[in-house]
Design goal:
The complex is a heterodimer of chains A (318) and B (228). In chain A, helix 2 runs parallel beside helix 8, helix 8 packs parallel to helix 9 and helix 8 packs antiparallel against helix 10. Chain A has 318 residues and is α+β, with helices and mostly antiparallel strands. Chain A has ten helices and eleven strands. Chain A folds into three domains: 111 residues, no CATH class; 81 residues; 82 residues, no CATH class. Helices cover 48% and strands 24% of the residues of chain A. Chain B contains seven helices and no strands. The radius of gyration of chain B is 18 Å and the shape is globular. The chains are: A alpha+beta (318), B mainly alpha (228). Chains A and B meet through helix 8 and helix 10 of A and helix 3 of B.
Chain lengths: 318, 228
C-alpha cells in the first residue's frame, strides 16, 4: 500500500461509485487543481495526481503489482464502479505534486527498514555520497513523512497536513521517533520529471468510464444469470429428490401403482413450480388419498400420507 | 342341511359382505360389489327357495333372470373401470350415480316386462339362455381382465384379492356354463337319454355354485380386512 502523507484534505471518505469520475476530473482540470486523489479499494490502492489541472500521473497497486496511466485509470474506474472503494482528495503545491509523481514512478532501493535497527547516519551518508535524487519515506501505521533529496542534498520535508515542501524537520523527525517507524528509500525517476503529459488530453476518459461501466454491467448480468441458473438447477434437483422420496414412501405402502399415483398428482400439484409451500400439497394429499383408497384401506392411506407430510417438511419453502 | 338352504346361506353372507363393502369403499368398488349383491336376489333366491310366494308368476321369474343379467353386466362394468384405473390412474363418477343407475335399469326392465305380454315358458327359457350366455362369456372376459388388473396392482395390499376374483369367476363359469349347457341342449327333458351328461352338468353346476358363493364371501372378507 502506498504510504503518502495526507497533504491538505479537500474531501475525505467519498464513495467514488456515486461520482461520475470523468466529470469530476474535468472539473479539477478546469479548476487548475493541484494535488492527488487516493482510491482505497479492497483489492488495492489507486493514486491520481493533478498538477495545475493536468492529470499527470495515475497508478494502481494490486497485490504488489503496479499498473500506470490508462491501465491504472481503468482499474480505478473498475473498483469505483464496483462500489468497493473510498476516495480522499488532498491538495498539494505543484512542486510537491510533481515530486510525488516522480516518486511513484521511481525505484524502491530499500523497503520497510526498521529505524531502530538501521544505521540512519550511514544511510544519509550514502545518499549524499551517491548524489542521489529521491526520497526517504518514514512511516508508521497511520502517519507518513517524506524527505526529498536532490543530488544528495536535502530539499525539504512533506508530512501529513502539508501542502508544500517544508524546511522544518520537526514533524518528519517526530514520525521517525514513533515506535515501529520504518523507512523506505526511493530514487526519483528523472524521465518522469521530464515527460509530464496530461492524460486527459491524450485519452477519452468518458469513453473509458462508459466501457468499464458497461463491462461491469455485463459481468454483473452474467453473474446474476449464473446464480439464477445455479439456483434453478438446485431447485430442480430438490424437486426431484422430493418426488423420489414421495414415490418411495407410496411404493412401500401401495407398490408401483402408489408410485405412479404420486407422479401423476405431484405434477398437477406443483404445476411446473420449483419452489413450493405446504399449501401446494393439500390438494396433492387429497387427490392421492382418493386414488390410493382404490388399492388400500383408509388406515394404510392415512399412515402413508402422515409419513409423506413428515418427509416433505425439509423440502418446503418457509 | 338342505343343499339349497346351504347355498342360500352362503350367498346371503357373500351378498351382505359385498353390499357392506360397497358402502365403505371407493366408488369403483361399488359396481363390483353391487353386482355380486344382485346375484342373491336374481339367481339364488328364486332357485333356492322355489316355494317363495310369487316366484311362479312369469313376470317375477323373468325379472329374476333379467336382474341376473344386470348383475353380471354391472360387475363387469366395475372391473372394466378398475382396469382403466389400474392402467391410467384415472377414475370418475359417484356412488349415488351407480346405485341410482342400477335401480333405473331394474325399473326400466320391470316397465319393459309390464308393457309386454306375459312371458310364456319359451320366452322365459330364451331370457334365461340370454342371461346365462352373458354370465358365461363375461365370466371368461372378466377372468382375463382381472388377470391384467392383478399384473398392474399385484404389489398393493389388495393384489391377492384379484387372484381370488379369478377363482370366483372360474367357479361362476362352471356354474353358469353347465346350466347353459343344460338349457341349450334341453338336457333336463333328455336326462333319461343322456343321464351321464345330465348328472355331470348338474353336479358341476352345484359345485360351481357352492364354490362361487364361498369364494365371493371369502374374497370380500379378505378385501375388507386388507382395506381396513
Amino acid at each position: 500500500m502506498f504510504q503518502l502523507p495526507r497533504g491538505n484534505p479537500v474531501k475525505e471518505n467519498l464513495n467514488p461509485g456515486k461520482i461520475n469520475l470523468p466529470e469530476a476530473f474535468a472539473k479539477l482540470h478546469v479548476g487548475n487543481f493541484t494535488g492527488y486523489l487516493r482510491f482505497d479499494a479492497t483489492v488495492g490502492t489507486g493514486i491520481v495526481i493533478f498538477a495545475n489541472g493536468k492529470l499527470i500521473s495515475s497508478l494502481f497497486e494490486e497485490e504488489g503489482r503496479q499498473v500506470v496511466a490508462y491501465d491504472a485509470l481503468a482499474r480505478i474506474f473498475n473498483q469505483a464502479l464496483k462500489g468497493r472503494a473510498t476516495l480522499n482528495i488532498f491538495k498539494l503545491s505543484a512542486d510537491l505534486a510533481v515530486s510525488i509523481h516522480a516518486l511513484l514512478h521511481g525505484e524502491m532501493l530499500y523497503r520497510a527498514q526498521d529505524l531502530n535497527i538501521i544505521d540512519i547516519r550511514g544511510l544519509l551518508g550514502k545518499v549524499k555520497a551517491e548524489r542521489m535524487t529521491g526520497c526517504l519515506r518514514i512511516y508508521t501505521a497511520d502517519r507518513t513523512a517524506l524527505i526529498f533529496y536532490r543530488d544528495g542534498d536535502p530539499l525539504g520535508f512533506f508530512h501529513d497536513g502539508s501542502t508544500d515542501i517544508e524546511m522544518s524537520a520537526d514533524t518528519s523527525m517526530s514520525v521517525a521517533r514513533l515506535p515501529g517507524a520504518k523507512v523506505d528509500v526511493l530514487s526519483t525517476s528523472k524521465a518522469a520529471l521530464d515527460e509530464l503529459t496530461d492524460l486527459m488530453e491524450s485519452a477519452n476518459l468518458t469513453e473509458l468510464w462508459i466501457k468499464t461501466r458497461d463491462a461491469l454491467a455485463a459481468q454483473r448480468r452474467r453473474a446474476q444469470e449464473e446464480q439464477l441458473q445455479n439456483s434453478t438447477q438446485q431447485n430442480a434437483q430438490r424437486k426431484e429428490r422430493l418426488l423420489t422420496m414421495l414415490k418411495e414412501t407410496a411404493g412401500q405402502r401401495l407398490g408401483k401403482v402408489g408410485a405412479s399415483l404420486v407422479e401423476k398428482e405431484f405434477s398437477k400439484a406443483v404445476n411446473g413450480k420449483l419452489v413450493f409451500n405446504e399449501d401446494d400439497f393439500e390438494n396433492f394429499f387429497s387427490q392421492l388419498s382418493i386414488g390410493a383408497k382404490l388399492v388400500a384401506g383408509p388406515s394404510t392411506v392415512k399412515e402413508m400420507v402422515n409419513d409423506m407430510r413428515r418427509g416433505i417438511k425439509p423440502f418446503l419453502h418457509s | 342341511m338342505d343343499w339349497y338352504i346351504m347355498q342360500i346361506m352362503l350367498w346371503l353372507i357373500a351378498s351382505l359382505v359385498s353390499f357392506y363393502f360397497s358402502l365403505g369403499n371407493a366408488r369403483v368398488w361399488t359396481s363390483i360389489s353391487i353386482g355380486f349383491f344382485l346375484v342373491l336376489f336374481a339367481e339364488v333366491l328364486p332357485s333356492a327357495l322355489p316355494f317363495l310366494p310369487g316366484t311362479d308368476i312369469p313376470h317375477v321369474e323373468a325379472m329374476g333372470y333379467i336382474v341376473g343379467t344386470i348383475a353380471i353386466l354391472v360387475m363387469s362394468h366395475g372391473f372394466q373401470e378398475y382396469y382403466v384405473f389400474s392402467r391410467t390412474l384415472e377414475f370418475e363418477g359417484s356412488k349415488t350415480f351407480v346405485y341410482l343407475g342400477v335401480l333405473g335399469v331394474i325399473a326400466g326392465s320391470v316397465a319393459f316386462l309390464l308393457i309386454n305380454p306375459a312371458p310364456t315358458p319359451t320366452t322365459l327359457r330364451i331370457i334365461r339362455i340370454v342371461g346365462l350366455t352373458n354370465w358365461v362369456f363375461l365370466s371368461l372376459i372378466n377372468i382375463d381382465l382381472i388377470r391384467k388388473i392383478y399384473l398392474n396392482i399385484k404389489d398393493t395390499p389388495i393384489g391377492k384379492g384379484f387372484v381370488a376374483f379369478i377363482v370366483v369367476f372360474a367357479s361362476i363359469f362352471l356354474w353358469k356354463g353347465s346350466e347353459l349347457y343344460l338349457e341349450v341342449y334341453d338336457l333336463v327333458n333328455l336326462a333319461d337319454s343322456y343321464p351321464f351328461r345330465y348328472q355331470l352338468s348338474v353336479i358341476v353346476s352345484n359345485l360351481g355354485n357352492l364354490a362361487a358363493s364361498i369364494s365371493v364371501g371369502a374374497t370380500f372378507l379378505y378385501l375388507a380386512r386388507a382395506m381396513r
